[in-house]
Amino acid sequence: MVEFEPTAKQRREVAIAAGAGTSHEEMALGLGISRPTLEKHFAYELTTGAYRKRQDALNAMFKAAKKGNVAAQKAYLSMTPAAAAPPLPAEPVPEGKKAQRQADAKTAQAGTGWETLLPAAPTQ
């Protein structure tokens, strides 16, 4: 049995179809191959290639919009930008055992009979 060998035309078609959101099953059926064969031989086209085709289409739409194509302007402006979420606040780095024991020692007298005898530690 001869192993499947994709052509440049098939690679381009898969990237275009993936960029448009076509399911893997539909693409495999269109090529006359199984889904595992599609995913094995067209991994790049199903991921990076698809995003490149979408970017090409977006660039063409923007270029047409700048030239005054009202339909392209409306289509471009109707897209909801996916702004990146602001970064999460940094998690405090857990202190080591020694640092934690030193911090606990500063308030060790609280709630004990020593509380009236020992002054409170200065806060930093």
Provide an overview of this structure.
By secondary structure, this protein is mostly helical. It has a domain at 8-78. It has helices spanning 8-19, 24-31, 35-41, 43-46, 48-66, 70-78, 97-105. The protein is elongated.
Shape: elongated
Radius of gyration: 31 Å
- Report the structural category: mainly alpha
Strand fraction: under 5%
Give, in order, the helices and strands: HHHHHHH
Treating each run of at least 4 consecutive H or I residues as one helix, how many helices? Answer: 7
Catalogue the unreliable spans. none
Q: What distance separates the N and C termini?
A: 76 Å
Helix content: 40-55%
The main pleated sheet reads as:
none
How many E strands? 0
Brief digest:
By secondary structure, the chain is mainly alpha-helical. 55% of the residues lie in helices and 0% in strands. The chain is built from seven helices and no strands.
